[in-house]
Amino acid sequence: MAQINAKKHELKNVSKLHFAKYKSNTSISTGSEKLLLFYSIECGLKYLILEQNKKNSTNDFQNILDSNGKSVKEIGHNIEKMLRILKVENIKLPKLPTKIKDEKGNIINAESSQYNQVWRYGIECDEEIELKIEEALNKVMKHIRNRMGNRA
Question: What is the residue range of 16's domain?
Fold first, then answer.
């Protein structure tokens, strides 16, 4: 199936929209709110990568190279990779231990590129680590909004 490409201004607008919706909830955030935060960050980081490289659409990711000289066209949901491309090194996103075990009985840990799956499917996970991740994601969003010229 062909990828649907987003324009830079669309990424910026939807990042702001998702974040505003996330922030509008004053209670403890649910998986749905965390999904909005996750996608707000994903769109914001993709916007910043396009802006940094003077490109206009996610279709242009094929022409943007990471530090290893590889195209970023398959960037997907990899927030850590996007942060590396933008040279943001002061924010760490830990693995999220789930309550699911693999066939060998080991706990499955979600990478940052998989947080959206945990929240989308309502997978039970370590709530303490999840709170730390949400704090870290809010730091990422603050960084994005500062680079976009908005205060978080």
Answer: 8-91+130-148
